[in-house]
Amino acid sequence: MKKLVIATRGSKLALAQAYQVQNELDKLNVDTEILIVHTKGDKDRKSSLKDIGGDGLFVREIERKLLTGEADIAVHSGKDLPYNLAEGLIIAGVPEAVDFRDCLISRKGESELKVIGTGSPRRILEYRRMNADAEFKEIRGNITTRLGKLDEGGYDAVILARAGLQRLDIDLSEYNVRDFSTTEMMPAGCQGIIAVECREEDTDTVKAIRRITHKHSWKRFNAERQLFKMMEADCSMAVGIHSEIHGDELVLSAMFEGERSEKKGSYLNSDELCASIKKEIFRG
Question: In angstroms, rounded to a whole number, what is the distance separating the alpha carbons of residues 195 and 179?
Fold first, then answer.
């Protein structure tokens, strides 16, 4: 098999995810190299994601490398995917997922958590239910940058995804950390999942990615992705999706602009569960 070029963003987290995929492929004796792509979201670190265009902000320029043939594989955070991929491209698989929860991080000794660092409409809406007096302040940058801004006193707390902290093995011993349950804060759809994209016509590449795919994480990805696509949501909206899979049983939950729904049924009938949730949340 030819050497495969893996396209990824250049942040520490994005590279950690790309290296995970690279290591899994290496176990199959598939030779790879990393290509760093600077996306629109990486170039503008000051504006809010909503202001600079949320749909595919961290994805489209990486997909372009696949379409031009400059790359063979693209590695994304599953939660960053727009509901439509570029034509001719597919998510061929996912390695094992990590923690899907969000968490609140504050300095030790900080008792009044008033100014919260997040620009996510979903996180703002969910946290406001727990603390109606909270003020929310936009925060951009990678994980270490955000923790640095917390240390400097610009925020009383920040809300981050556990997945990134876990993948980068961030030491949080100097902070207070509160992990949110899905009832308290519904995660973004496919949070904690790495999505591996390639050209649909490249059958050998698809097969290689399938061989590194974690079955349970793949089922969770497909269920949450199916509902996300059906809702046609983007990062300007307060939307969260989470699934739990036990054997053939699927428990699918969603939140959209404060409306919540949960359905249980067979994983094989996930399309019906998704349609039922969408109907309930959007009131028909």
Answer: 24
> 56 or 119: whose pLDDT is higher?
119
pLDDT tens digit sequence for 171-195: 999 999 999 999 999 999 999 999 9
- In the numeric block, which tokens belong to residue 208? 């290689």
Contact 235, 50 (CB under 8 A): yes
The CA radius of gyration of the chain, in Å to the nearest whole number, is: 19
Predicted local distance difference test score (pLDDT) of residue 56: 62
Task: Say how far apart CA 204 and CA 67 lie, in whole Å.
Answer: 17
- Within 8 A by CB and 6+ apart from 212, the residues are 21, 24, 25, 27, 28, 93, 95, 196
Q: Residue 109's pLDDT is what?
A: 87
Return d(Cα 184, Cα 51) in angstroms, integer: 27
Return the ∠ at Cα 217 (arms to 165 and 24), rounded to 5°: 75
Q: Are strands 89-93 and 175-179 parallel, antiparallel or unpaired?
A: unpaired
Q: What CA–CA distance (Å, rounded) separates 37 from 61?
A: 7
Domains of the chain from N-terminus onward? 1-94+190-213 (3.40.190.10), 102-179 (3.40.190.10), 215-283 (3.30.160.40)
Q: Is the pLDDT of residue 44 over 60?
A: no
- Using an 8 Å Cβ cutoff, are 155 and 114 in contact? no
**For residues 284 and 272, what is the distance between their CA atoms, to the nearest angstrom?**
14
At residue 55, the pLDDT reads: 55
Q: What does the alpha-carbon distance between residue 278 and residue 221 come to, in Å, rounded to a whole number?
A: 18
Two tokens at 189? 């759809």
Q: How high is the pLDDT of residue 52?
A: 45
Q: Catalytic residue positions?
A: 80
Q: What whole-number distance in Å separates Cα of residue 212 and Cα of residue 85?
A: 21
